[in-house]
Structure formats: C-alpha cells, structure tokens
Write a structure and sequence with these properties.
It is built from 5 helices and no strands. The protein has 108 residues and is mainly α. The protein has a domain of 40 residues.
C-alpha cells in the first residue's frame, strides 16, 4: 500500500517538474548554448578558413565580415552585449540596495 502511494507521489513530483516552464526554458537554453558553442568554436572557424584556397583568404574574411554587418549579425551581438551589461548593472545595484537596507535595519 505504501509503495503504491509513494509511486504516485514520485509520479506527481516528476510531472510537476516537467510541467514547469523553467525546466523547458533551461532545456532549450542549454541546447542553444551547445549549438552556439559548436558553430562558433575556434576550431570550426579555423576549419572554414582552411577550406578556402590560399589566394582567396583575404577576400573570404572581408566577405564574411561584410556579410555579418549587412545581415545584422554584428548588431545582434552588440544588442546581446548591451543586454548583458544592463543585467550585470541591475544585479550590482540590487545587491547594493539590499546591503544598504540590511545596514539600515541593523542600525535601527
């Protein structure tokens, strides 16, 4: 009897974890991070450059940079960097305000 009850408790716990939105956000974020690391890894960039004939490497690099600028990839990277800096700044200011409140409460 107890085994049956505990099995149902474990099933409901597993379902609550799988139904939670943060679980799926974390899963997709992890998959996106792995794909990004695979595509932007230094070895991948070097392999792509080595696949180009020697005389065409400067044109390939300029073309790649121009393609990144013209397709908005550079703007996307700058936006993500700015968003990251804003997130770090918000975290810093939140910790400073929290520390200030704790000090103020200790003095009172």
């Amino acid at each position: 009897m107890q085994r049956t009850i505990m099995r149902r408790v474990y099933y409901s716990y597993a379902l609550s974890i799988f139904a939670h939105a943060m679980f799926w956000q974390g899963a997709f974020l992890g998959a996106a991070a792995l794909l990004l690391a695979k595509w932007l890894h230094v070895a991948s960039i070097i392999n792509n450059t080595l696949a180009v004939p020697v005389g065409r490497v400067p044109q390939y690099i300029v073309g790649s940079m121009w393609g990144a600028v013209s397709h908005g990839e550079v703007l996307t990277v700058l936006t993500f960097v700015a968003a990251g800096l804003v997130a770090v700044s918000v975290g810093y200011h939140l910790t400073q305000s929290t520390i200030g409140r704790v000090v103020w409460l200790e003095r009172a």
